Amino acid sequence: MTQSEQEVTMLLGFKTELKLNNRQHTMLAQHCGVARHAWNWGLWLTKNILEYNKSHPDEKLNFPTAIDLHKLLVTLVKSENLWYYECSKSTPQQALMTLRQAWKRCFNKTAGVPRFKKKGRRDSFTLEGTVKILGNNKIQVPVIGILKTYERLPQVLTKSCTISRQADRWFISFRFDVEQQESCQTSIVGVDLGIKALATLSTGEVMVGAKSYKKYAAKLSRMQWLTRHKTMGSRNWKKAQLKIARLHIKIANIRKNTLHQLTTLLAKNHGTVVIEDLNVSGMMANHKLAASIADMGFFEFRRQLTYKCKLYGSKLVVVDRWFPSSKTCVRFVQSKP
User: Fold this and answer.
1) Do 243 and 287 touch, CB atoms closer than 8 A?
2) DSSP states along 70-90
3) How far apart are CA 107 and CA 98, in angstroms?
4) What is the pLDDT of residues 44-69, one digit of tens each?
5) Which of 26, 27, 33 minimizes the C-alpha distance to 81?
């Protein structure tokens, strides 16, 4: 790819729900189990190496790379656990690569120490190799075969995909190159985020947030309260936990949909979008406002707006957090007839 092509293309992610049968449900669960087992084994090994180096400073062992971990996994783990061979070989390999990246972030002090994974919590795995999109709603992946989707798939080329589970629903995601568009818009708009209203624009428009958590907080609290006497691990307990997980997904989807609509509107219809550099982590420290701030999704708003401005050819300007943007927008709205 030439330098001119790199300047006009960007990586875009696509995620959609899978339409599965019982056999495919079982195979996806097996792949999640292999990825989780490889992660936990690699984390156990690397933690032991770090503890050994701490207690023996004169005889330190080299911290293994992702390739070293995979070689040890093939030699020590795969030979004793034959069920590894029922799944794609890239699944444990990708899990160990993700673990090595997690340790790298930990050493750079940009994230905490990696944790052991539990069954049923954020289950996911990555496949590499022959990933082909067949028609409008079919995708072929290694070992598992052809998977159907509810949504039309983009007709693109991809080499890897990630399959994840949320409650009892399975999703597939992959990345592909897309050409950046050139914007013909010249207008400039300032955006001030808030708790009562999601966004107040410098044009005088006020965008109301979804406030999905506030809307379903009472229902969620009651569902959690009703599980207090259920035996953990029982069938009724699992049914109740599944209902709670579905409600959490519904709350998150409503919030994401509102943010997608607003960020797309701003990036497509304005040449320059100006936002404030908010200290979201510091704002979340206020326990009285933390739930309302999280319900609005300030961080997700900026993340979406960043890549959409790049995609649609508009410019994103982030001003200093001490700039009086709220007062400026309020004065403009009050003075507008």
Assistant:
1) no
2) HHHIIIIIITT-GGGGGS-TH
3) 14
4) 999 999 999 999 988 889 999 999 99
5) 33
**What is the pLDDT at residue 4?**
46
Distance CA 328, CA 336 (A): 12
Alpha carbon distance 93, 109 (integer Å): 25
Cite the DSSP H helix spans in 108-131. Answer: none
Please state, in angstroms and rounded to a whole number, the distance separating the CA atoms of residues 71 and 79.
12
Supply 207's token pair.
């965008």
β-pairing, 145-149 with 9-19? antiparallel
Q: In the numeric block, which tokens belong to residue 189? A: 């708009």
Q: Identify the residue whose tokens are 């309020």.
A: 330
Give the CA distances from residue 154 to residues 144, 147, 178, 278, in Å, rounded to whole numbers and listed in that order: 21, 15, 11, 35
d(CA 77, CA 39): 12
Local structure of residue 192 (DSSP, 8 states) = E
* Mean pLDDT, residues 206-220 taken together: 91
**Measuring CA to CA, how many Å separate 231 from each of 222, 224, 235?**
17, 13, 9
> Which residues, 6 or more positions from 31, have their beta carbon under 8 angstroms from its beta carbon?
87, 88, 91, 125, 127, 144, 163
Round to whole Å and give the CA distance between 288 and 304.
Answer: 26
Q: What is the mean pLDDT of residues 185-189?
A: 88
Taking alpha carbons only, the member of 173, 168, 26, 161 closest to residue 86 is 26
pTM equals 0.84
Tokens of 6: 């790199």
Q: Rounded to an integer, what distance in angstroms lies between the CA atom of residue 41 and that of residue 212?
A: 39
Q: Are 306 and 316 in contact (CB under 8 A)?
A: yes
Enumerate the H helices of the chain as residue ranges.
3-8, 22-55, 66-72, 90-107, 212-226, 235-269, 280-284, 290-296, 298-312, 325-335
Residue 72 CB contacts under 8 Å (≥ 6 apart), including other chains: 45, 64
Residue 316 amino acid letter: L
